[in-house]
Amino acid sequence: MSPPLSLLFAFGRPLSPIYSLLMTIRQQLYRSRVLTVHRLPVPVISVGNLTMGGTGKTPTVAYIAQYLRSLGHRPAVISRGYGGSATAAVNVVSDGDQIYLNAHQAGDEPYMLACNLRHIPVLTGKIRLHPCRHAIERLGSTILILDDGFQHLSIARDIDLVLFNATTLAGNSRVFPGGELREPVSALNRCSAFLLTGITDFNRQRAERFADLLQKRFAGREVFYSSLEAIAPEPLQDGPTPAGQIGPVYAFCAIAHPDRFFTTLASLDIPVLGQQAFRDHHRYNQQEIDAICQRARLAGAGSLITTEKDRGKLETLHLTLPLLTLKTSFVTGSAFPEYLGTSLQQLPPPAP
Q: In terms of domains, do 117 and 150 share one?
């Protein structure tokens, strides 16, 4: 944890019980139907987390969407569109065939999903009920995936997945502003199952101990594991480039945990002569890109390398050095897709 964040949590700790109480009251208002919970005519799968920061929701959502399509469903991804400039009640990022919004309009993650998901619509909207209904009524979607939906209680869900990053787990286990939790731990009682993401040889044992704790405290909820496997970096135009053929690069990114990106590059033996990290969801401008290119040249790098999430934000900017993109693949065992398939088969038929 960075020193500024540690300082923020230290000063915010006295306020944590207040925020925790407010979130608990909010949950109770939805549970007692004082606040409306909308039941949609198709199954809904929520992919969310209890902690702030990156837990691998985007690759998980992409994997689930593709798996559901392989089963014959017509899924759509619904996101709030955090950081995007599009403010309509329904923003169609992609109808599954054509992309209509760029990264600036849609938000980083929805645009990345739209670029990677063929024949699967991606929509955003601050009030997610509107894009949900649009996907069902206008696009013919037969199942919905709520991206970052655990706290979005106004829509009933049939499968409620909560993700934890295997390295950071529950952080300091305190509720914001004294810690990284969005809600008190008791909120996990409403989830269906857990997915521990980013499993590596270094964090596996600690993650397994955490999984044991989850299963003891939240009996009946299964715990699954996933990891991200790096794919050979791709230039803007051509196909994958073997790591051994990549010359010295300068790395930069704007993601929640930049150290994971830099560590992955090191594990691939890609020669990195310099690196720079921006805050998550940072919007690059031409001046910053020019400065990055200049630093890269001074360091002796012949090209730049960034993440797939960042690449979408660079399409309108001019780069004077070649750009490589590190892509990753979601990897999990057979138990997780089997759980999804079985859970969907057990759902009651939709109301006429």
A: yes
pLDDT in tens, the chain (352 residues): 555 667 777 778 888 999 999 999 999 999 999 999 999 999 999 999 999 878 899 999 999 999 999 999 999 999 999 989 999 999 999 999 999 999 999 999 999 999 999 999 999 999 999 999 999 999 999 999 999 999 999 999 999 999 999 999 998 889 999 999 999 999 999 999 999 999 999 999 999 999 999 999 999 999 999 999 988 786 755 545 555 557 899 999 999 889 989 999 998 888 999 999 999 989 999 999 999 999 999 999 999 999 999 999 998 999 999 999 998 899 999 999 999 999 999 987 765 5
Statement to judge: residues 189 and 269 lie in one domain: no
Count up the domains in the chain and report the number: 2
Give the structural domain span for 44: 7-228+331-345
11-50 burial: b if 16+ Cβ within 10 Å, else e: ebeeebeebbeebeeebeeeeeeeeeeeebebbbbbbbbb
Please name the residues in contact with 195: beta carbons below 8 A apart, sequence gap of 6 or more: 60, 161, 162, 163, 164, 223, 224, 225, 226, 336
pTM above 0.85, yes or no: yes
Does residue 219 sit in the same domain as residue 245? no
Q: Are residues 113 and 159 in the same domain?
A: yes
**36 shares a domain with 155:** yes
Looking at the fold, whether 281 and 253 belong to one and the same domain comes out as yes
87 & 165 share domain: yes
